[in-house]
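re the bet — no i am not wrong, look at it urself. input seq straight from the record:
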Amino acid sequence: MAAHTVYAIGECMIELQKSVHGQGGTMDYRFGGDTLNTAVYMARLLDPAHVNVAYVTGLGTDGMSAEMLAAWEREGIETSCVQRLPDRLPGLYMIETDPDGERRFHYWRKDAAARHWLAAPGAGTVLEALASARMVYLSGISLAILAPSDRDLLIATLARCRAAGGSVVFDNNYRPRLWEDAETARDVYGRALAHADIALLTLDDEVALYGQADAADVIERTRALGVGEVVVKCGGAPCVVWHDGRLHEVAPQPVKDVVDTTAAGDSFGAAYMAARLSGKGPDDAARAGHRLAGTVIRHRGAIIPREAMPAG
């Protein structure tokens, strides 16, 4: 049987961090972005003989973009859906972390290539692939960076995917500075969630966008949009899962030596989806999500070394 493909949609940027060993403002650079982080971890967790992971975005034709592509391919990510735009460059962000591992982001991404992937000549072919996919994964950031007409086109493609029997997974990842205003974000989120099978929601983002601080209320609102499986991530507290009429909590193992919380939610989502694609139930999937996220936050940067991945 041929392998199925899971498509992750979004933006990868150049990630700058102050070098641990450097002096005088020396910087290390890596590549990261919410859905790209998730795609990397999914590719590490899934058997490529059964499920491939492809990334959908826009990049330039510059050397840094080529380096990104090569890095993704080394991780086993399919890159044929990456649109190359000769007049664009990747976005850039810098992370500052406090002594508790919490982070602050600074972005330079206003005209990044990922914002324009739907204008590329090959975008129509990519949309057809998404419409017939086994699973499509995207986040609020994936939609926020697009022009309104491109958002509409992508959401219509999500509807086609679901109608054809594929699954759509939406992660809220709300970043206010990327949106015209909160009202627009709520409208777009509602339309995307109306075609989603699984919602991976961070409670802090739900508070920021909807003012809902109770996970049960978040789940009730999301279920009303037609989402059949809802996971509310609550940081170091137990996540709340709703599926098949059941509402229950899944607690993480305590993590004392937190270094950097970057990509905690992204890695949780990767392990959750990989477990579900492998036939595991929501409870086991949530435990797998906590296990990977708990490992990731003990390392600096969005993508941890492959040898640091948890077993099992």
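see?? The first strand starts at residue 4 and ends at 9. told u. also Residues 28 and 72 are 18 Å apart (CA to CA). so pay up
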